[in-house]
Design brief:
The chain is flat and about 105 Å long. It is an alpha+beta fold. It has a five-stranded antiparallel β-sheet with strand order 1-2-3-4-5, with no helix packed on it. It has two domains: 1-114 and 233-449, no CATH class; 132-222, no CATH class. The protein has helices spanning 2-9, 11-14, 21-34, 36-57, 60-66, 71-113, 199-202, 241-267, 274-286, 298-364, 371-395, 401-424, 432-448; strands at 132-139, 145-153, 162-173, 179-192, 205-218. The chain is built from 13 helices and five strands. It is 61% helix and 13% strand. Helix 4 packs antiparallel against helix 6 (71-113), helix 8 runs antiparallel to helix 10 (298-364) and helix 11 (371-395) packs antiparallel against helix 12.
């Protein structure tokens, strides 16, 4: 299902590009690494609920407790497995996903740049060849012969296209498949000589008829080539922990440089001219209580006020730009911090999901795919919504990277602790008989009152 989501998301980029199954398979393989953080916690949650639900449904947990084996002893062997899965999650987040994102990003870029192949359809204008727009009325898929052909050729760079019509034609490739030969039969060619001087006065043009004409198209632009992956390697989603730390430090230093530059630049807006200082100093000493503008005539007062306002507006504009620039850099740094914390949240989420699923399965005592699947999906939806909300808050700079990325873990951890406690104390929290008995006692108490 998740792979199908990927296909539909990028269907516009994949359709009509003439990609081989190998390239599409590579793209799906690289994408499969990025869905591990979505699949692994859900898998652990579902597996733990099903396992201990089956044990509880067949009363094996009851038998174990009767033999003196606590629920913690039952959890202990699986903790090693969950620990290994947590380490695998960290390795996936820190190594596999950055490499897969790098290769997927470069491959997607190449596919987007790849022009469509020659998928010429009957009665539809085809613009897959640069500078060429052509239409055919009918196309024989077996012989490749086309009839009633219209071609608009703008490869010469003129403002007017060369118009070519033909009764029929046929396409063939060169041996090295670098050129396409389009042979036309019984047609006409019309070209306006718009590059000639005084074209607007006489509108010169040429036209001629032909029995056979061959047009050559260069197909080198259609060859699929791979871009150098180093062009994408500095993106925050393609870095490991060490590289993210370096990126964070670099961005922090850049922010400090920008703030320091702001202070230095503002000094030019707030100062006294030396000549003005010399002229007004003795006056200020003799009349401190008077306004500074009162010592100038009306014309100079207006000049001073206008200059001050212009300086203030310039300073404000520069400060607004600097704040926006620093804010953009800070948001980029938040994304680096967010990815740094993401490397650890997957491992911890695996452990938390186990301590939610295992005791929950032991309490509800239901195995199979029915109830466990429903419960695991509900818990995972809550976890996913909290994670997405935290990430949005970090990206909008309304929360720190730690609080945003760990909010789901911090909320689900107490639930895991509570469920583990209830499972270890044989809680009847999900026992229908207990709830019915408590409800009847409540009704009896209300009637007595």
């Amino acid at each position: 299902m998740l792979l199908m989501q990927f296909i539909w998301k990028y269907i516009d980029d994949l359709a009509g590009k003439g990609l081989s199954p190998w390239v599409i398979g590579q793209l799906m393989f690289y994408f499969s690494a990025s869905i591990i953080p979505m699949v692994l916690p859900l898998s652990i949650l579902l597996a733990s609920i099903m396992t201990f639900g089956n044990l509880g449904e067949t009363y094996e947990i009851v038998a174990a407790k009767a033999a003196g084996v606590s629920i913690w002893r039952l959890f202990f062997p699986l903790l090693g497995v969950i620990g290994l899965l947590g380490l695998f999650g960290f390795y996936t987040s820190n190594v596999l996903i950055p490499k897969a994102n790098l290769k997927k990003g470069a491959l997607l870029y190449d596919i987007r740049q790849q022009k469509p192949t020659l998928l010429i359809q009957s009665g539809v204008f085809f613009n897959g060849i640069e500078g060429i727009s052509l239409r055919v009325k009918d196309k024989n898929s077996e012989t490749g012969e086309m009839t009633d052909i219209v071609i608009y050729d703008q490869r010469s760079g003129g403002s007017k296209p060369i118009i070519i019509t033909a009764e029929k034609g046929k396409m063939s490739l060169s041996k090295d498949k670098q050129f396409l030969f389009f042979t036309l039969y019984n047609g006409n060619r019309y070209e306006e000589m718009d590059k000639q001087q005084d074209y607007e006065k006489t509108y010169p043009h040429t036209t001629f008829s032909f029995r056979e004409e061959q047009i050559i198209f260069d197909l080198q632009a259609f060859n699929f080539s791979r871009t150098d992956e180093s062009l994408f390697k500095n993106h925050y989603q393609m870095l490991d922990i060490v590289q993210l730390n370096k990126g964070h430090d670099s961005l922090s230093n850049l922010i400090q440089v920008k703030l320091s530059g702001l202070k230095v630049s503002l000094n030019s807006y707030f100062h006294f001219n030396d000549s003005l200082r010399r002229n007004i100093k003795p006056i200020i000493d003799t009349a401190v209580k008077d306004s500074l503008l009162a010592h100038f005539d009306r014309f100079n007062q207006q000049l001073l006020v206008s200059a001050a306002l212009n300086h203030a507006r310039s300073a404000r504009g520069y400060v607004d730009y600097a704040i926006s620039d620093v804010g953009d850099t800070a948001r980029i740094r938040n994304k680096f911090d967010m990815e740094w914390h993401r490397k650890f949240t997957l491992s911890v989420a695996c452990i938390i999901m186990f301590f939610i699923g295992a005791p929950f399965g032991a309490i509800i005592r239901k195995g199979g795919f029915g109830m466990p699947l429903v419960i695991s999906v509900i818990f995972y939806i809550v976890y996913h919504i909290l994670s997405i909300t935290g990430e949005k808050m970090v990206k909008t700079d309304t929360a720190t990277a730690f609080s945003g990325m760990w909010v789901a873990i911090l909320i689900l951890t107490p639930i895991g602790i509570l469920l583990t406690y209830l499972a270890s104390t044989d809680s009847s929290l999900f026992d229908k008989a207990s709830w019915k008995s408590a409800f009847m006692r409540l009704i009896f108490w209300v009637k007595r009152k």
